[in-house]
Amino acid sequence: MRPSPYSDLDRPPLSATRLRQALVTPGGFWTELLVKDETGSTNADAAAAARAGAAEGLIVVAERQTAGRGRLDRQWVSPPRAGLTLSVLLKPPSRYQWLPLLAGVALVETVRRMGDVDAVLKWPNDLLIDGRKCAGILAESVGGSVVLGIGLNVTLREAELPRPDATSLLLAGSTCVDRDPLLRALLRTLADRYVQWRDDPEGNDLREAYRVHCGTLGQEVRVALPDGTQLAGTASDVDGAGRLVVTGPDGAPTAVAAGDIEHVR
After folding, report:
1. What is the average per-residue pLDDT within 135-154?
2. Which end of the chain has fewer CB atoms within 10 angstroms, the N or the C?
3. Is 73 helix (H, G, I), strand (E, B) or coil?
């Protein structure tokens, strides 16, 4: 019997050829797609391409990432072909702060539609299912460009989870755990959301869509701020700059641009 080109039959490799045919089309938003068997970081690869003059619309996908990072420099690891690990290159005109939230909306809409799971966003852009983290997003500025990195756990089994509060689409009972249609749907949704926002940032429904999908709103939260202090209160809104508004016990609102959020049960 001829040996399989990959060891786990439940985790077939992505086809770069088929994905390019589906996503990199004349007049479409996506301009180039690279699928790598292994890389250190797709964000680092996309950033290097940006510095070399790559056009907006570049997609870098890795079957295995060895030095991936999440928010606050946390490590993001996954077995080969067990998830979607990708970065895209965008060149927005302004208001970079909304891009991670926009990517979160595209991700949660894709997962809910394709997998029929009750996913929500934890501010700013962690994807939670039943309170457990299934995906994360990291945005990095590179000159006049922004690299958006997305990591989604698709077929990780319980023993493969990187932390006790993590999950995967498979473990959450998703009706779709095929990475090919998930990736296509995610990138199409992301492109649609981005082009609408880029062309008319004040006239689309992005902020309202984020509010609908944000599971942090209405929760009692503790926020570890970058300066080492903490803020406690009710997550009451997301403002026009994408900041989380936390209303304290005294009724005073504070807008948080960055911080580590804990939902207090």
Report:
1. 95
2. N
3. helix
